[in-house]
Design goal:
Rossmann fold, 7-stranded parallel beta sheet, alpha/beta
Length: 242
């Protein structure tokens, strides 16, 4: 249905919720999935349950990325690796945390795109890249100065990459999810004074699930999205439309 049978797709951040869901859906769609991340144990568990291949590397190291990705024959890439950083205002932010958030979410994604796109160009078969961004890049969210800035940078990486790689029939898009209520996010968004205003402004009025983010990612990788590139797609229950 997606035209991904036998095509090799690298998913970074594969040990996380969205990354893991994306790996599972891509495997179900017939893709040859390479799961990337830093945790060898988490990747091994994912491989045991899905049959994907694994590729540990560090998103903060160009040498690590070059060594892992440089020789891969790729059709697709999902830049899902990320770091949340801190909840802080511009007046309070720890600039070292800001630097790390930018290093992982924007710089890391650009570096993986750099080496993955070289592979796609070398093979001459086109390709598709999907960057996992956030609604925090599209609207201002309190406390999200670091995370929102990194994802806004990622959205621009998406647009410029789409412009530069289109001549090679390589499409580049991003998805911009709302909150997924995991234990990691519940400490903040689970507070009624924080989460309730967002939900009340969202037409669908509920949090997203990992699978609801993974499904559009798989669509954007596949043949059904063959004329879509340079898009930042909100997956946010209508929040940014209001």
């Amino acid at each position: 249905m997606f035209g991904l049978d036998g095509k090799t797709v690298l998913v970074t951040g594969a040990s996380g919720g969205i990354g893991g869901a994306t790996v599972r859906q891509l495997v179900a769609a017939g893709a040859d999935v390479v799961a990337g991340g830093r945790s060898v144990d988490a990747l091994a568990a994912l491989a045991a349950s899905t049959g994907c291949r694994t590729l540990p590397f560090d998103l903060e190291s160009e040498d690590s990325i070059r060594g892992a990705v440089g020789d891969l024959d790729l059709y697709g890439l999902v830049n899902c690796g990320g770091f949340g950083g801190e909840i802080a205002t511009p007046m309070e932010t720890d600039i070292s945390v800001f630097d790390k958030v930018i290093a992982v979410n924007a710089r890391g994604a650009l570096l993986v795109t750099k080496y993955a796109s070289r592979s796609m160009i070398r093979l001459g078969r086109g390709g598709s890249i999907v960057n996992v961004s956030s609604q925090a890049s599209l609207v201002a969210l309190s406390g999200h100065i670091s995370y929102g800035s990194s994802k806004a940078a990622l959205d621009n990486i998406t647009r410029v990459s789409a412009l530069e790689l289109g001549r090679y029939d390589i499409r580049v898009n991003s998805v911009n999810p709302t909150v997924i209520m995991t234990p990691m996010s519940a400490w903040y968004w689970g507070r009624p004074e924080v989460g309730d205003p967002l939900l009340s402004a969202m037409p669908l009025g509920r949090w997203a699930t990992e699978d609801e983010i993974a499904a559009p990612i798989v669509f954007l990788l596949g043949d059904g999205a063959s004329m879509i590139t340079g898009v930042s797609l909100p997956i946010d229950g209508g929040f940014t439309a209001c």
